[in-house]
Amino acid sequence: MRTTLYALFTNLHALVTIPLAVGLAVHLLFDLGPAEARAADWTLSHLVVCTGCVTGIIVFAGMAVVGLTLSVVYGWRGR
C-alpha cells in the first residue's frame, strides 16, 4: 500500500514539475527574444507558467489531504 502511494505521489510531482519547467523555459525564451516576440507571446508564456503553478498548488494540497486522511484512517501502524 505504501509503495503504491509513493509511486502515485512521485507521478503527481512529475505532473506538476513538467508544466512549470516548460512554462519557465518558454517565458525565458520569449523574454530574451526580439521585442516583437516578447510582446506577442508574453501572455502565452505567463499562462503556461501560471497553469503550472496552479496545478502544483492543487496537487500538493490534494496530497496533503490524502496524507492526513491516510494517517487518520490507518493510524501509525508499523511503527
**Helical amount:** over 70%
Query: Structural class, please?
Result: mainly alpha
Uncertain spans, ≥5 residues at pLDDT below 50?
none
Evaluate the radius of gyration. Answer: 18 Å
| Biggest β-sheet strands, sense, barrel | none
Q: Provide the domain count.
A: 1
| H/I helix tally | 2
Question: What general form does the structure show?
Answer: elongated
Return the average pLDDT rounded to an integer. 68
How are the SSEs ordered, and which strands pair?
Layout: H1 2-32, H2 35-74
Helix pairs in contact: 1-2
Can you summarize this structure?
The chain has 79 residues and is an all-alpha fold. It is 90% helix and 0% strand. The two termini are 15 Å apart.
Describe the overall structure.
- The protein contains two helices and no strands.
- With 79 residues, the chain is mostly helical.
- It has one domain (2-74).
- Helix 1 (2-32) packs antiparallel against helix 2 (35-74).
- The radius of gyration is 18 Å and the shape is elongated.
- The mean pLDDT is 68.
